[in-house]
């Protein structure tokens, strides 16, 4: 975790409810992540992890509750609203353009236009974008393939790193934002997983708040400072990763262990 003394959460959700008709998908959820903190969001299938992540990213609007970003109350009507507030989501499908090179993928949506008439016509400055991409990856401590290599030629781990780095670049800066990762190591091998783990910790060390939805408990042991566990749409545990018995975590996930909290949502 970053050494900066920060007392205001980068993202703070309070009393979040979400209804799909008569179905209560999320019930009175409190959740926060501090700048430079990695929080693992755990739970069995159907526990509400992805639904809560979609609330954070602006894809779903909560039926009730409050969302604050760096202490300021916000209302997200779309993912673009969350992005403008400094929240970036990396989905399992990565959303990379396979036929384009690494530099182009890193610069999607913030292309540098060429100077003069060619820029007026929409021609991009590929050399300038490549130089900026290399500088940004150096700052993140990322070493991937050459910037000119198409992403379809990268390994699974390299593709994941490019997708995560692209979002990390957008939330870096003076007011570090929030990075949401949905199963970032799914279908990756050991070495590729280690590559992603290293990037996650380096981003946290630079002050970025990170939330990881995963079924991979070893990943949480490696990178998470804290874990929040959901069961049937309710928060049942919020504990530091280090020093917590793994059997207790599994018990909260499966429902064999009682919730840490009084059930306010019943």
From TrEMBL:
The lineage of its organism: Bacteria, Bacillati, Actinomycetota, Actinomycetes, Micrococcales. Keywords: ATP-binding, Nucleotide-binding. CDD domains: ABC_Carb_Monos_I (cd03216). GO terms for molecular function: ATP binding; ATP hydrolysis activity. It comes from the Bacteria. Residues 11-257 form the ABC transporter domain. InterPro entries: AAA+_ATPase, ABC_carbohydrate_import_ATPase, ABC_transporter-like_ATP-bd, ABC_transporter-like_CS, P-loop_NTPase. This is Sugar ABC transporter ATP-binding protein. The keyword Nucleotide-binding applies.
């Amino acid at each position: 975790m970053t050494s900066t003394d920060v007392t205001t959460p980068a993202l703070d959700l309070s009393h979040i409810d979400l209804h799909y008709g008569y179905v209560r998908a999320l019930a009175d959820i409190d959740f926060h992540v501090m700048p430079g903190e990695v929080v693992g969001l755990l739970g069995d299938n159907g526990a509400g992890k992805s639904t809560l992540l979609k609330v954070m990213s602006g894809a779903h609007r909560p039926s009730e509750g409050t969302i604050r970003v760096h202490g300021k109350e916000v209302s997200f009507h779309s993912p673009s609203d969350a992005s403008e507030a400094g929240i970036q989501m990396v989905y399992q499908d990565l959303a990379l353009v396979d036929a384009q090179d690494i530099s182009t993928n890193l610069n999607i949506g913030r292309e540098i236009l060429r100077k003069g008439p060619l820029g007026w016509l929409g021609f991009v400055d590929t050399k300038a974008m490549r130089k900026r991409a290399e500088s940004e990856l150096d700052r993140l401590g990322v070493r991937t393939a050459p910037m000119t290599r198409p992403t379809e030629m990268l390994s699974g781990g390299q593709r994941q790193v490019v997708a995560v780095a692209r979002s990390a670049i957008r939330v870096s800066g003076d007011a570090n934002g929030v990075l949401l990762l949905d199963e970032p190591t799914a279908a990756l091998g050991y070495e590729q997983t280690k590559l992603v783990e290293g990037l996650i910790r380096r981003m946290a060390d630079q002050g970025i708040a990170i939330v990881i939805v995963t079924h991979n408990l070893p990943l949480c042991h490696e990178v998470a400072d804290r874990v929040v566990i959901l069961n049937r749409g309710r928060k049942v545990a919020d504990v530091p990763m280090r020093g917590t018995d793994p059997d207790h975590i599994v018990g909260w996930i499966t429902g064999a262990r009682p919730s840490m909290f009084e059930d306010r949502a019943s």
